[in-house]
Amino acid sequence: MAQDGNSGTELAAADSSDHGHGTELAVGTAVVATDAVPNPGFPPHRPRVTDLDPKKEKRAERTVYTLFYLSAAGSIWAIAAYMMFPIEPENLNSVRANNLFIGLGLALALLALGIGAVHWGKALMHDQEGIDMRHPTRGSESTRDRAVEVFAEANEESGFGRRSLIRNSLIGALIAFPLPAVVLFRGLAPEGPEANPVRLLEHTMWKKGDRLARDPSGVPIKAVDVTIGSVFHVIPEELANLGHSEGYLEEKAKAIVLLMRLKPEDLVEDEDKKDWSYDGIVAYSKVCTHVGCPVALYEQQTHHLLCPCHQSQFDVTNHCAVIFGPAARPLPQLPIAVDDEGYLVAQSDFLEPVGPSFWERH
Ligand code: FES
C-alpha cells in the first residue's frame, strides 16, 4: 500500500494492514508478535521560514544560485591556476603553489555545488513527508504512468523548471566542473616536437657500446662480477650524465634492465639470438609487458622472473617467455657483449619496444 501522507493516522493504518497487526492477524500456525514499541508516525508538520515568508524564500533562492555561480567560478579558477602557477622542473615551491591553487579552486567548486544543492533541497523544495512502500521490480502500467506524474510533480515542487536562475546556474556549474580535469589530463601528455607517445616509447637510451652499470650507483659491471645465480638491477652508465630536468627519470624508467647469470647449458636460445648473451649472462627489460610494473623478483632455482603486480611469470631460460599471468609477450631482451676491459656493454638498443604491450606501436 503506497500512499503519501503526512499524518500519523494514515501511517498507522498503512502499517496495520501491511503487517497483519491489530485485527488482521495471519491465519495458520504463524505467531505474529505485535511491535513492542508502537510506530509513532510522523511528527506534526512544521512549516519552514521559507514556506511562510516570501522574502526569506527569495533570499534562499539568491543563496542557492550564488553558490552555484561560485562553484563555476571555482572550476574556472582551477583552470586559471593551472596556467598561472605551472610546475617548474626541480622547483618544489612551484609544485606546492600549483597543487595549492588548483586544489583550492576544485574544493570551492565541489563545496559550493554541494552546499547549494543541499540548501536548495532543504529550504526551497517541497517540504512534505511521505511513505513509499516497496513494489515488484516492474510496475504496472498505472504505476509507470504514476512515475511520470511523480517526475512532473517533482519538477513542479522543486521548481526546477520554474526557477530558471537556479536551474541555469546549476547547469552552468555542472558543465564547468569537469573542465579542470580536461586541462589537467591534457597537461600529462608529452609536449614538443617529439610529442608522439608511440615514438617516445619506441626507443630507450641504450646504444651500441654503452656500459651496463649498477642501479643506482652507476658503477659499471664487469662480466667477472656476475656470479651464477646473481641478479643485478642495471642502468646505462651514461644515465648519470642526465640531470633531472633533462629527463633522467623518464629515460631510466624505459632503460632499466635486470641482469642475471645462469649456467650456459640452462639457456635455450633461438638461433638468431644466440650472441645476445655472454657466457650465460642475460639482460632483460625490467618493465613488465602487462601494464609496466617493475619485474624484480627472481627465483634463482627455477629461473623464473615474477611481476608482483598481477603475478605474470617469465622464463629466463627461454627468452623470458610468459609462462603465467596476464602479460601478453616476453620481456624484451637487451643484446649484450663484453668490451676490451671486461665490462658488459650493450650491442644496441632493445630491438622491440619495452613496456606494456597494449600500445599499437608498429
Ligand atoms: S604489470 Fe606485471 S603482471 Fe601486471
Automatic annotation (TrEMBL):
- Membrane protein topology class: Multi-pass membrane protein
Where does this polypeptide localize? Cell membrane
Q: Where is the Rieske domain?
A: 254-345
One family from Pfam that matches here is Rieske
Keywords from UniProt, A to Z, are: 2Fe-2S, Cell membrane, Disulfide bond, Electron transport, Iron, Iron-sulfur, Membrane, Metal-binding, Oxidoreductase, Respiratory chain, Transmembrane, Transmembrane helix, Transport
Gene Ontology cellular component list: plasma membrane
**Alphabetical list of InterPro entries matching this protein:** QcrA_N, Rieske_2Fe-2S, Rieske_2Fe-2S_sf, Rieske_Fe-S_prot
Q: Which domain of life is it from?
A: Bacteria
Task: Check the record and name the CDD domains matching this protein.
Answer: Rieske
Just give the chief location class. membrane
The keyword Transport belongs to this UniProt entry's keyword annotation: yes
This entry's Gene Ontology molecular function terms read:
2 iron, 2 sulfur cluster binding; metal ion binding; monooxygenase activity; oxidoreductase activity, acting on paired donors, with incorporation or reduction of molecular oxygen
User: Which stretches are transmembrane?
Assistant: 64-85, 97-118, 170-189
Task: Report residue spans for region: Disordered.
Answer: 1-22
As for family, the record states: Belongs to the Rieske iron-sulfur protein family.
Instruction: Give the protein's function.
Output: Iron-sulfur subunit of the cytochrome bc1 complex, an essential component of the respiratory electron transport chain required for ATP synthesis. The bc1 complex catalyzes the oxidation of menaquinol and the reduction of cytochrome c in the respiratory chain. The bc1 complex operates through a Q-cycle mechanism that couples electron transfer to generation of the proton gradient that drives ATP synthesis.
Give the protein's recorded name: Cytochrome bc1 complex Rieske iron-sulfur subunit
